[in-house]
Design goal:
There is one protein chain. The protein contains 6 helices and 9 strands. By secondary structure, it is α/β, with parallel strands linked by helices. The protein has one domain: Rossmann fold, CATH 3.40.50.150. A 7-stranded mixed β-sheet has the order 3-2-1-4-5-9-8. It has a two-stranded antiparallel sheet with strand order 6-7. It comes from Rhizobium grahamii.
Length: 206
Amino acid sequence: MITDPKQHWENVYATKSETDVSWFQDSATPSLELIALTGARPGNAIIDVGGGAARLVDGLLQAGFEDLTVLDLSRSALDAARHRLGRKGQGVHWIDADATQWRPERHYDVWHDRAAFHFLTESLDQNAYIESLKQALTIGGHLILGTFALDGPEKCSGLPVARHDAESLSTLLGPGFSLIDHRRHEHQTPWGSTQRFQFSTFRRAS
């Protein structure tokens, strides 16, 4: 259990540059491909949970999406993304919050999370996250969860993680979510090592 996750992530982004973290991607191609798989259109609302300073929002803006939200524990990470995007990011909704405690004020068509959920190693936190998800995601909407695979790293940024496959995520989410796609992805870190990810895409049925 992380005693103070917000302090941990604020420290990470205050002491490291955007490209000096293992999860950095020049382009969020795997996530963009999965969002396209859902059939999402530019008018749909998309939230990137744990998006931080990641570049998915850049790719979505370039693809013509306008109703975008990025949620992260770290204000420093969000500020880095805002600074990078400049005027292009003025229409993005930036939310500094913990997904396990956040209560959404609106609904979204796509909930995307690459590498945030796997830091929740306690069932209490996992269930709280899923409750926020259920309040936010529309019926018929899509959930994309990217986590470390079962043979992926056991720790990241000095913290333990819960590794998953499509079956374990389906069990946690329950019968209201239908699995429509699952695939592995080998992410190359900026220093050349490989991290094995599992991406699972669900459609919310109820």
